[in-house]
Amino acid sequence: MCTGQGPERLVSGSDDFTLFLWSPAEDKKPLARMTGHQALINQVLFSPDSRTVASASFDKSVKLWDGRTGRYLASLRGHVAAVYQIAWSADSRLLVSGSSDSTLKVWDVKARKLAADLPGHADEVYAVDWSPDGQRVASGGKDKCLRIWRR
User: Where in the cell is it found (predicted)?
Assistant: First the structure.
């Protein structure tokens, strides 16, 4: 859920490959139906500045959407297997994704391209997050390892 400038927004993603953008205080119907994923959606997150929504999917991609209108912005491709989890940096400039391909990828959201490829896990990556200062990423996976990555 996002509570930035303007009315509160909510985004939902599901196993029918679809996302919906909602404004619960204004209407019971969705503001936008967002399509483009080719497999079920694992996670959706508003950026901290509420301008962008990111979605992670079993279709091996991360997609970016306008947080106000739901308009499609870009696909971030690089993983070779399902993307399980994503996390925004506090400044909304970077996004990290963790995948069943055993890698993390750091994406430059403005440039819409890969900023860093982080191999190192021996198996699927289940959890990713940023440190509050944005200088490190933590990841955990099926290999039972917790890894800390410096930016």
Answer: Nucleus, Nucleolus
| pLDDT tens per residue across span 10-32 | 999 988 999 999 999 888 899 99
Task: Please say whether the beta carbons of 106 and 94 come within 8 A.
Answer: yes
Question: Structure pTM?
Answer: 0.92
Helix (H, G, I), strand (E, B) or coil at 116: strand
d(CA 62, CA 77): 7
Read off the pLDDT of residues 50-71 as tens digits, 9 standing for 90 and up. Answer: 999 999 999 999 999 999 999 9
Domains of the chain by start residue, with CATH = 10-150 (2.130.10.10)
